[in-house]
Amino acid sequence: MNTAYTPYRATQRVEVRRLVLALVVGLLALGCGEESDLSDEETDLSNDEHSQICEQIDASIGLHDGYDLPGAAGAPRWGIPETTPPIRRVRRSWSTLSDVEKTQVIDAFIALKNITVDSGDPGSARADYDSFCDELGLESYERNLYDYYVEAHVNAWVSMGTPVQQHIRMAHMGPQFLTWHRYLLLRMEADMAEAIGDPDFALPYWDWTDCYEDGDPSTCGPIFEPDYLGSAGSCDQDNNSVEGYLTDQGFRVHIQSNTESVFSPESIVCAQRPVRRSVACSEYVDGPPDKTDIAGIFDRVVYDDAPYNSCDTEEDVSFRQYLEGFSNDEVRGVCVLSGCSGMHGQGHEWISGDMASGSPSPNDPMFFLHHGQVDRLWAAWQEANLATGGKQMVNYGNPGFPEDFLGSLFVFNEVDASELFDYKALGYEYDTLPRR
Ligand SMILES: [Cu+2]
Fold first, then answer.
1. 155 Cα: distance to centroid of ligand 1 (angstroms)
2. Domains of the chain
3. Ligand 1 centre and the CA of 368: distance in Å?
4. Is CB count within 10 Å lower at the N or C end of the chain?
5. What would the pLDDT profile of 125-153 be if each residue is shown by its tens digit?
């Protein structure tokens, strides 16, 4: 199945580089290239500067469709996993798991790293993907089932450069943000279950509010335990490797990006190193989202709103925009690019390190727990709509989901967005859901 990585056309490469360069130069000119020593006043963007960045993001859209990039080709297609009625995965809050259950989750993540192409383990056929790292010649790199998810996400991110007609399939900054990540988690969860031989295995989620109730809100003790998910890292960017069980068991990152050109395939660099975190070190966010932020989802009555992007869709109107981030109210260039507000972006930025690296952010297993919470809030919002609108409500409780966006997912073109609305039909549910 594995076919060689065919570089996208040279003319496109030049254009990508030029645009990314323009973006970076633009950011530097706006004073956003430096991470510190800048006052708020200096980093604030005028409306004009804000639209300029948005236009540059838009301009990078359309350069390639992603199918000739690694991470997309090679591996067998999946489809919706089997969901025979007895299988009911109940996704629970991480902080309610027993020590044994926590260890099982971490071991499942590690197991996926050990399911390499040639291992012959269940699922190993799906590790036969075209890796960005094949092309970059990382000698000791072995393609594996965990990194498949990282590379698929990298592809979806750098292919944010999608033709205009492909905008309807973008995995971020648009309506398919929630459907795309729901599918990513669904498949990851199924692979973890298979890897550890427990068909009822369910991916836990990170309930952000635990950081306020049960621990030191500055570092969120209930989550960043060295024995399980690993330490909170360090604010020293050169010395922020995660310590503890995860790292000790050999969990390593293989693909990273240089953060100056996050929307370009040119940004990809391959590596062999532990996960990095700088929890609570970002100057842009004060903490993970809290109860008040979460309650705000019920004030947004439509799923998404025209023009269905990140820069112009109103987060006061669009549930998706409010949840995803990349807010159109951002006043800092770095936040327009990577998201600092909006609950999803805020969580990424608060953990920082690999989580704030954009395209390869699934390198940190926290990505999957964080997106578990994002998916849970979508489920809660759907249920609230179903309760008020009756079971006949269009699109399974997603009023305002744009018709044009109901089709196939980017990279995962074997499924349609519309197949992912009814999460219980996909074989899982949540232990609790926030209510209106
Ligand atoms: Cu993502």
1. 10
2. 2-430 (1.10.1280.10)
3. 10
4. N
5. 878 877 777 766 666 678 899 998 998 88
